[in-house]
Specification:
nine-stranded mixed beta sheet, 9 strands, 13 helices, alpha/beta, Methyltransferase type 11 domain-containing protein, Rossmann fold, about 350 residues, disordered N terminus, methyltransferase activity, methyltransferase, Malonyl-ACP_OMT, transferase
């Protein structure tokens, strides 16, 4: 299922460097990322909600996929839970607008039924996040009381799995879900392998990450501006995973029966590049590459803004040019091995000659 969606909101880039010796094999500064996400959690709920639209939307699309899985999710691990976007999307129903047509009404009704179906399967919901402030900020929000099962919040690192009870005991979860969090993990193969061990046999791993074409408009604009003004480019936007690599990453970690697809979400309506960066900061998604540059000079930002408008700007009916941002989201589903899973027949045991069929 591949679709695109236009959301009239904003997103975007950069931060300060803190490279330390002995980290040359790592790409991301996990301490800086923790600080960024903790600052994002300190925003007032009203301001934060304006920048949570993307995680909320991806969480909803994840629920649509979970609804197709018929087995129960007695114990679920939400790894990198942020503010609880997936839990909120499970518990909050979408209202049907008065102006909605029959098709829209049917889609919203089906989504609400999917939420109820998935929610009632879960008996224990374990939320893990490295930021205590982000994990606990919305713990008293009304949506928590709508969940029929048990909710557990655990502060632990999503990369090191440094919690003995919830992140080191094998075969304890029926499902592990990660919503837009794993793209900041340095060693993805190791993290996926650890997740596989956490799952019970025939357990399922459902994950979303940003793909390599995410915010390509911002990336290319900054690169062209820096080439023009500085004669070179700096890593001002973090590297992201390639869709072609996902299959091998999951297979190496021991997952079977893989399902992988991607969707594009286009966010429009940004007045300028500064507005794009404000939303990224509000999400706690600033650049966290170890070798990232620090302060962005004013002349570079102005040049990037004009390039952005020229190459990617969208002119509205009123003649104003606004900036779009494209997010490429990769959805992946993998199952832990079980002898009870369907297995392919041995080679040569087929009973039908394909030549006759074709």
């Amino acid at each position: 299922m591949v679709r695109s969606m236009l959301i009239a909101r904003r997103w975007a880039s950069s931060s300060a460097s803190s490279f330390k010796p002995g980290t040359k094999f790592n790409t991301f500064d996990r301490k800086a990322k923790l600080a960024q996400r903790t600052r994002a959690a300190s925003l007032t709920p009203e301001l934060s909600k304006k920048t949570e639209y993307l995680r909320d939307e991806v969480a909803t699309r994840t629920i649509e996929r979970l609804a197709f899985i018929t087995r129960d999710f007695t114990k679920l691990l939400d790894l990198g839970a942020h503010l609880g976007n997936l839990l909120k999307s499970l518990c909050m129903e979408s209202e049907i607008p008065a102006e909605a047509d029959a098709e829209q009404k049917a889609m919203i009704k089906e989504l609400n039924e999917d939420r109820l179906k998935v929610r009632n399967k879960i008996k224990e919901y374990v939320m893990v996040d490295s930021s205590k402030e982000m994990l606990e900020r919305d713990a008293e929000e009304p949506f928590n009381t709508l969940f029929p099962g048990k909710i557990v919040r655990v502060v632990a690192d999503e990369e090191t799995f440094n919690n003995e009870e919830y992140l080191q005991k094998e075969n304890q979860y029926d499902i592990v879900v990660s919503n837009l969090s794993m793209h900041w993990i340095n060693d993805l193969p190791s993290a996926f392998a650890k997740i596989n061990k956490l799952l019970a046999p025939d357990g399922v791993f459902v994950c979303t990450v940003f793909g390599e074409d995410t915010i390509y408009e911002l990336r290319t604009s900054l690169q062209l501006a820096e080439m023009e003004r500085r004669g070179g480019i700096s890593p001002r936007v973090s590297p992201l995973i390639k869709l072609d690599d996902v299959n091998s990453l999951l297979s190496r970690a021991g997952f079977k029966m893989l399902t992988i697809d991607s969707e594009e979400i286009v966010v429009g309506g940004f007045p300028d590049i500064v507005a794009v960066c404000e939303d990224i900061q509000g999400m706690g998604e600033l650049n966290a590459v170890l070798s990232r540059p620090g302060f962005m000079p004013r002349d570079l930002l102005l040049a990037a803004n004009e390039i952005y408008k020229t190459l990617h700007g969208e002119e509205g009916p009123d003649g104003k040019v606004t900036l779009p941002v494209t997010f490429n989201v990769i959805f992946m589903i993998g199952w832990k091995h079980s002898d009870a899973q369907p297995q392919p027949l041995e080679r040569g045991t087929g009973q039908i000659d394909l030549k006759q069929v074709l």
